[in-house]
Amino acid sequence: MARWEPNARERLVVAALDLFAEQGYDATTVRQIADRAGLTRTTFFRHFPDKREVLFAGQDTHARLLSEAIGTAPGAAGPLEAVGAGLDALAASFPAGRRDFGARLLAVVAHHPELRERAAFKHAGLAGAMAEALRTRGVPEPSASLAAELGARAFDTAYARWTAPDNAEPLGLLAGEALTELRDAAAALA
Amino acid sequence: MARWEPNARERLVVAALDLFAEQGYDATTVRQIADRAGLTRTTFFRHFPDKREVLFAGQDTHARLLSEAIGTAPGAAGPLEAVGAGLDALAASFPAGRRDFGARLLAVVAHHPELRERAAFKHAGLAGAMAEALRTRGVPEPSASLAAELGARAFDTAYARWTAPDNAEPLGLLAGEALTELRDAAAALA
C-alpha cells in the first residue's frame, strides 16, 4: 500500500532541476533525484516515466487551462482574443515565486538537445490543444492552427522575459504584450 | 578499412521504413534494418546514431537548401517571398518518385509518439534555420521567426497534400499555395 507523500510530485521536480543544474542532466539518475527529494524510486515512477519527463510535468494541466479558457471566451471574441484569454488563464497558474525556478529550467533545457527536443514537442502539444479549442469555436484551418501557434510563441517569449533577472512585470501582462507584437508582425508580413 | 557500399544511406532508409511499416517501429532492430539493406550494423552506425534518426536523415540538407535560397533571394524580396524561394529550392530536391515513400513515412511517424516528437524537433530546426537566414537579411524579430514558422508549416502542409493518393500537383506548387493560404490567414487574424 503506497504511503501518502505530501507534495511528492513538486519535491521530485525541484530535486531533479537542482541536480541537473549542479551536476548535469546526463550524470543525474532517477535514484539520485528520489534521494534528494527524500522519496523512493518507486514513488518517482508513480509520478513520471523517466527523468526527462520531470521537467515537463505540467504539460497536461497547461493544455487544459488553455483549452478551457479558449472554449469559454465570449462568443464575439476573435481567434486571437480567445487565445489571449487562454494565455491569461495559463499565466495565472504560475505563482510569482516560480520565477527563479523558471529561469533555471530554461537554462537547463537550453543546454541539452534531448530537453530542447522535448520542449519543442511541448510547444507543439500546447499549440495543438489551442488549435483544437479554436476549431471547436468554429475557427477554420489554417487560421486556428496559426492563431494557436502565435499563442504558443507569445507564451514562450513571455516566459523567457518573465524569468529574466531584471524583470518586474507579471507573466500575464508580458504574454499579452508578446501576443500583440506577434499580431503586429503577422500584419506586417501579410 | 571500410568497404565502399553504393547508396548505403538510401538503402538503409528504405529498409528501415519498410520494416517499420511491416512489423512496427518498436519491434524493429538496427540489425534487422542492416540485414534488409544487405549491409552490416557497423555500416548502419557509420550513417546514423540510432534507428529513429534514419527517418530524419535529410534534416541538415533541408536546412541548408532553405538557408541558401533565402540568403540568395533578391534583395528587394520581402520575408515571405524569400521564404517562398527557400521552399522552392527544398521542394525541387524531392524527386517525384519519392511520393510513395513520403506517404509511408508520414503514416509511420503519425503512429509513434517518439517519431512525432522527433518530427516536431525537425520542424523547429528547419524553422530556426529559415529564421536565422532571414535575420541575416536584416529581417527583425519576431517577424523573422514568424515568417520562418509560416514557411515550415507551409512545407508540412504541402508535403501531406503531395503524398495524398489523389494528388497530381508538384510539391513546389503545393508549397507556394500553402504559403499563400497561411499569409492570407495571418492577414485575417491580424
From TrEMBL, chains A, B:
Signal peptide: none
Superkingdom in the source lineage: Bacteria
Gene3D superfamilies documented for this protein: Tetracycline Repressor, domain 2
DNA-binding region: 29-48
Domain HTH tetR-type, chain residue ranges per copy: 6-66
InterPro entries: DNA-bd_HTH_TetR-type_CS, Homeodomain-like_sf, HTH-type_TetR-like_transc_reg, HTH_TetR
Keyword field: DNA-binding, Transcription, Transcription regulation
Name of the protein in question: Helix-turn-helix domain-containing protein
Annotated source species: Streptomyces evansiae
Classification of source organism: Bacteria, Bacillati, Actinomycetota, Actinomycetes, Kitasatosporales
